[in-house]
Amino acid sequence: MINSTRRTFLVCAAALGGVALLPRNALARAAAPILRAAPSNAQLVPSQYPATPVWAYATEGVGTVPGPEIRVTAGEWVRTRLVNDLPQSTAVHWHGIRIANAMDGAAPLTQTPVEPGSTFDYAFETPDPGTYWYHAHHNGTEQIGRGLAGPLIVEERDPWLGQPGAATRELTLLLADWLLDDDAAIVGGRWDDLHAASHSGRMGNTITVNGKTRPAFDLRLGERVRLRLINAATDRVMPLALPGLSPRLVALDGHPVPPRAVETILLGPAQRADVVIDAPQKASAALSLQLNPGNGEWSGIAGFVLDGDPVVPEPGEVRPLPAWGTLAAPDLTEPLRAAVVMEGGAMRGMDGASFRGERMGFRDLAANGIVWAFNGVAHGLEAPMFRAQRGQTVQLQLTNRTFFPHAIHLHGHHCEVQPRSGAFNQPGDVRDTVMVGADETVDVAFVADNPGKWMLHCHMLSHQQSGMMGWFEVT
Ligand code: C2O
Ligand code: CU
Coil, helix or strand for 7? Predict the structure, then answer.
């Protein structure tokens, strides 16, 4: 798959007319490849059960779940033509890429949604190496809930794989959460269920890893592998564990962290973690990637099968990923201070909020499918939450006055978690999606160096859809 997508997804020289930046094989990749979104079928569950009708992306042939892996090297461009063969409008967002605003796919803010039968050409540079993903950004709960998501991998310019202390191999694992009925069909028709939306969101009953329930991966004895974990669930927070595999975290949301040993990895919706694992030197009990669905019980969602002769010598200390070198450090001497206060949902509720420019009480909001707000504004598209000058440091205070955690995603930027970091973060982590626990306040800071109108929303898509959305502007 990697080879075919490397061929299919055109990457070409940076805008500078920079011949020196032309990647190898640039000519072979000269046509804008297609990314078609269309109904398809996927065998999510074991083959004694029916295949699931899904919506899926394809570069050629029929759509797959997840969509084809797009893989480039930092500094290269992705060019693709979205072809919408879905029964409804759509747009593609390249989650976590510090992208030019017009290519962000954040309908309706940065583009109008692409109607059925229409196309839209995306072309963008990928400045920073790391693990990203792409997904539909219109009717997200339904479109991602039906399968419109895929991995977007930006490799380091100087390969890390194969270096001393690095991994010899990597695996991309895209995790999704499906709500299936007894015939393995997606439970539709309740994408805007306000009961779910006012709680933790739409929870599935079937976890897949790369579009399969409990797939198995081979591991050589003693082998060091880099896992690129992506939480592509619409709403589910995923506590993960890799017992017996000594997991070390090396990147969050694509951005490197000094390698740290972790017992569990908590991935909110849209978050990614790069984790280095070491297979045991001797055959051992069954190994798996485990998920805790919230009841305290861990269960395997992917298995690892040990095989082959032990790797010698043992790989030793984990080699850190190379620093990005592209992200400006926040200057906190005179930042622009902005705040996002989250309100609403079950157990707390809210008195009222403004929606489409009109102040409404709780009942009218609910009648409009709204149960959440940011700073007293629900689904705020009319005006930005704040405006920053290009190059200005923004210190953003994220306050959660609700009973539920939220996964706050900033488009176009990555932010640094400040000392007040809450239970889900560590100060200094750099992320594009930040979990804020119930009743927590988390401070983040970033340099607003990417001009445009950028969405800021909860990535629990049921929450986004029912009010937790706004935007900020960099001018
Ligand atoms: Cu991954 Cu606005 O989204
Ligand atoms: Cu939320």
Answer: helix
Same domain, 63 and 188: no
State the distance from the centre of ligand 1 to the C-alpha of 93, rounded, in angstroms. Answer: 6
Nearest-atom number in ligand 1 for the CA of 433 is: 1
Predicted-complex ipTM score? 0.98
Residues 260 and 362 in one domain: no
- Both tokens of 338, joined, read 């902005």
List helix spans (H) across 159-289.
Answer: 194-197
Structure tokens at 8: 């299919």
Task: Please state whether the peptide bond connecting residue 39 to the residue before it is cis, i.e. omega within 30 degrees of 0.
Answer: no
C-alpha 261 to ligand 1 mean position (Å):
29
Instruction: Please check whether residues 15 and 98 belong to one and the same domain.
Output: yes
Q: Which ligand is nearest to the CA of 434?
A: 2
- The answer on 340 and 229 residing in a single domain is no
Nearest ligand for residue 106 CA: 1
Instruction: Give the Å distance between the CA of 460 and the centre of ligand 1.
Output: 10
The atom number, within ligand 1, closest to the CA of 133 reads: 1
The neighbour count for residue 198, using CB atoms within 10 Å, is: 25
What stretch of H or E contains 472? Answer: strand 469-474
> What is the whole-number distance in angstroms between the Cα of residue 474 and the centre of ligand 1?
18
Q: Which residues have any ligand 1 atom within 6 Å of their CB?
A: 93, 95, 106, 135, 137, 270, 409, 411, 455, 457, 459
Instruction: Kindly report the protein residue whose alpha carbon is nearest to atom 3 of ligand 1.
Output: 95
Ligand 1 atom with least separation from CA of 96:
1
Instruction: Give the range of the structural domain holding residue 141, as residue numbers without chain letter.
Output: 2-155
> Could you tell me if 256 and 365 lie in one domain?
no
Q: Which residues of the chain have pLDDT under 50?
A: 1-30
Q: What letter would DSSP give residue 63?
A: -
Q: What is the pLDDT of residue 62?
A: 94
Domain containing 366 — which CATH number? 2.60.40.420
Residues 253 and 267: beta-carbon distance below 8 Å: no
Tokens of residue 267, six digits? 């991935």
Distance 248 CA to ligand 1 centre (A): 27
Give Cα 449 to chain centroid, integer Å.
21
Query: Over the stretch 344-379, which tens digit does the pLDDT of each residue have?
Result: 999 998 889 999 999 999 999 999 999 999 999 999
Three-state SS at 433: strand
For the chain, the domain total comes to 3
> Among candidates 238, 244, 282, 288, which has minimal Cα distance to 263?
244
